[in-house]
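seq as requested:
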Amino acid sequence: MQQYILTLSCKDVMGIVARVATFLAQSQCFILESAQFGDPSTGRFFLRTHFEARNGSSLEALKLAFEPIAQQFGMDWQLTDPQRKPRLLLMVSKQSHCLNHLLHRYQSGALPVEIPAVVSNHTDLQELVSWYRIPFHYLPITPQTKTTQEARLMELIAWLQIDLVVLARYMQVLSSDLCRYLQGRAINIHHSFLPSFKGAKPYHQAFDRGVKLIGATAHYITEELDEGPIIEQEVVRVDHTHTPEQLTSLGWDVESLVLARAVKYQLEQRVLLNGNKTIVFH
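struct tokens:
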């Protein structure tokens, strides 16, 4: 039977859950999973419901029928088909750990997506991408070419009908125009030392300061560098016995895991924006 996922957010008022549940029951839809949250700090209500249409209703028919309810409560909402494979565009520079982790999950079927392209500002990982039989697009960035190359990137995203852009250690600052273009549909990953240890070799800087925790943060892209709404984080405890190389290895493992989780949550429609933060229904 056909399954769908409904996500919504609106002002937190009485009767929302009852109205949605009644709609689904009247539409002969069986709820498989449901989660909700009312945020007292923002006065917003959030809901994610995964259900089965037992009368075979189409996506468009359900959208049309639900529209009056959405208007009644002033909802921001989406109704999606989880059987459709989302289309990802991966962006990378020279470090391969996050990219390789995502590509392995893709090849094994653990990440049910289509990846029609990988974009990079370097050619270092072209051979790896080619091994997975994915088109590789080399878009080198200089101060003189940045605007032109970002325009080409936006054209590529539109042409390939990309649903989600994943920056798998893409080491370039995106322009404000590109950030606005990708709002809510681009995820970045970085180590969690920021803003303390910027620039090259952050794990070596962490070693020099004797840190006891290393971690990673996955977040949405915004115009504020590395400050977008956080989707997922993880930490690993370390001590004085770890070398800089060991810290780097552990850090790369955490970065790969956190990015993969964030991508999975996004693809499963489990992430809802709540101002400068997110609601993540695990």
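Residues 244-267 form the longest helix (24 residues).
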